[in-house]
Specification:
- By secondary structure, this protein is of the alpha+beta class.
- The chain has one domain: Alpha-Beta Plaits.
- The chain is built from two helices and four strands, in the order E-H-E-E-H-E.
């Protein structure tokens, strides 16, 4: 398992959290996404290596971006 904690930009409410968890969680090989609204972070766990570009691609069409 691979795990990473990323900074999330653009979150303002619990609905934002749900959208991010749903979008990233739908990606192939992602087993868990835990978004912390207060800290503006997302912990992502995957069975394969985690590609930041693919994570951002999953958020296309929203105003959210992730950085490390």
């Amino acid at each position: 398992m691979n795990s990473i904690i990323l900074k999330v930009q653009g979150m303002t409410c619990s609905a934002c959290k749900k959208v991010i968890e749903k979008r990233i969680g739908a990606m192939k090989d992602i087993t868990s996404v835990n978004v912390n609204l207060d800290q503006a972070t997302a912990e992502i766990i995957s069975v394969t290596s985690i590609d930041l570009n693919q994570i951002n691609k999953s958020l296309e069409g929203t105003h959210y971006t992730v950085t490390n």
